[in-house]
Amino acid sequence: MTLESFDPPPPPPAPSSSTSIDRVMRPRRAAPGDAVRPTRAEVNLAALRHNLRIVQRHAEGAKVWAVLKADGYGHGAPAVARTLERAGANGFCVALLEEGIELREAGIRAPILVMGGYYGAASAELVARQLTPVVYDRSQIEAFARLVKSGAVPGPIDVHLKVDTGMARLGVRMSELAAFGQKLADTKEVNVVGLMTHLAEADALSPEEMNHQMSRFDEATKQLAQIGIVPTIRHAANSAAVLRKQARLDAVRPGVAIFGVAPVAIEKSENESTDLHLTMRVRTEVAALRTVESGEKIGYGGIWTAPRKSIIATIPMGYADGLSRALSNKGHVLVRGKRAPIVGAVSMDMAMIDVTDLPGVSVRDEAVVLGAQEGVLGKDAISAEEIAAHVGTIAWEVLTSISRRVPRFYREP
Ligand SMILES: *Cc1c(COP(=O)(O)O)cnc(C)c1O
């Protein structure tokens, strides 16, 4: 036995402002090594790079700051950021400070914009990690000014100012911009390097509302210039706007397009592929099979009754994994390359599918909930949009709903 083994354990770390951040940043999440169940999400890194290239082409020179909030739309933000940074993404946007820190800890060096606005006790951490805050409220500016004046961090702190041009969610209202701008101009500890707004209807059929917002944004830019605030980087476009080649300015903020979902139709190009590729594939395996008689009921509440003698397969994925309960008696899963309808109520950890029309299904066959599958019976794909339509939501929610207990595997096919 070595001497070291008699040493007392190190004392618990003293509580500091970063302790709570550490806790938020490291929630338990299934890793590939934990995968006992065959249920997992495969993230295709080549598809991420492909989608970035398509977005870059549509950005036509504007910088691409990929939006990686909510753990990179459920894909695992660190791995996605590393892949995109190497592939030429110019920066990243996140919603939360914790998300920004997670990316820095993953070794990301590109600029990271923290869009949500909650900096609280961790403002010094934000500056130390070279994260760029978005500001829209006097209290944020005052807090940053105090921080610099106290000597806790060097000033001035570079910020992006957010203007509300019609989304009515976050941002300085146009009616308050003059006064707010003056406050910023008077606060030497804070330096406005960026100006941003967010579009509410970039995917609408009519561009009218988007154009309206952009003309307000131009007006805001002029107003600020009059009091000496001239940000070097202006940005407004989400995925829908970039893909429409609108509102691109100095930088664009695509999120869902990077993950293979096009909120608007993409104009075809003669010489190159313009299709986005879905970056996440969620798969599991058939866990059990049974034959039920005509008239037998299935699952909780007996909400599906076999109309004929049927073969029912159980898959180990349920609503706690992100297979929405709204898919009960709706939607499909791919087995052997063909669709099998989801039957009965989706339960917490499992769901049932009707494989009566799919000859030869056996236990351990792959079952694909999201993405493509090729098998002996054919070849098909289930898109996030298709699931969203069944559930009554949008593709963004489908991707971000795949829960923490589904381990992410990264592939370079
Ligand atoms: C989420 C978000 C985006 C990205 O939106 P997508 O539609 O996913 O491209 C851009 N900007 C802000 C402020 C956002 O919150």
What does the model show?
- The chain has 413 residues and is an alpha/beta fold.
- The protein is built from 12 helices and 21 strands.
- The chain has helices at 17-25, 45-59, 69-73, 77-86, 97-105, 123-128, 138-149, 177-186, 208-226, 239-243, 384-391, 395-401; strands at 40-44, 63-67, 91-94, 112-114, 132-135, 157-164, 172-173, 190-196, 233-237, 251-252, 280-285, 288-292, 297-298, 304-305, 310-315, 332-335, 338-343, 351-354, 366-375, 378-382, 408-411.
- Strands 1, 11, 12, 15, 16, 17, 18, 19, 20 and 21 form a 10-stranded mixed sheet that branches.
- Helix 1 crosses helix 5 and helix 11 (384-391) packs across helix 12 (395-401).
- The two termini are 48 Å apart.
- The relative contact order is 0.13.
- The structure holds pyridoxal-5'-phosphate.
- Pyridoxal-5'-phosphate is lined by residues 67, 69, 115, 198, 238-239, 253-257, 396.
- Pyridoxal-5'-phosphate binds at residues 67, 69, 115, 198, 238-239, 253-257, 396.
Which value, in Å, is the CA radius of gyration? 25 Å
Structural class: alpha/beta
- Tell me how many strands there are: 21
Averaged pLDDT: 93
Strand content: 15-25%
Most strands sheet: 10 strands, mixed
